[in-house]
Amino acid sequence: MSVRPPREGRKRQYEPYAYGCLVQGDHMNKSEIIDNIAASADIPKAVAGKALDAFVDSVTGALKEGDDVVLVGFGTFSVKERAERTGRNPSTGAAIKIPAAKVPSFKAGKGLKDAVN
């Protein structure tokens, strides 16, 4: 098992990416996404943060109502039904019933797939 080295106060180096975003090999957290939105749209970080929050709230609200969110070229957010299933308690090995659940899903669109490959 490999362990990532701790993040020290290093500044990440991003490369330009399709759709005007900036990406880096590891992952991006919310504040880094806000920084990139603000830089690419030439708006203050506070406004970019509100825009990101509004986007997340809109997608969440639509999924709660059972709607799909389709962003052509980027992807589709949807809710899928996961059936009830039998699992195992890892400490005792006893069979347990895992209830059915609704789970959020994302399917990448052609534009996103092409950009990544």
TrEMBL record:
SUPFAM superfamilies referenced in this protein's UniProt entry, alphabetically: IHF-like DNA-binding proteins
Keywords for the protein's UniProt record, in alphabetical order: DNA condensation, DNA-binding
Name of the protein described by the UniProt record: HU family DNA-binding protein
SMART domains registered for this protein in UniProt: BHL
PANTHER family attached to this UniProt entry: DNA-BINDING PROTEIN HU, DNA-BINDING PROTEIN HU-BETA
Cross-referenced InterPro entries: Hist_DNA-bd, Histone-like_DNA-bd_CS, IHF-like_DNA-bd_dom_sf
Pfam families per the UniProt record, alphabetical: Bac_DNA_binding
Signal peptide extent: none
Originating organism: Nocardiopsis alba
Family to which this protein belongs: Belongs to the bacterial histone-like protein family.
GO MF annotations, alphabetized: DNA binding
Keyword flag DNA-binding: yes
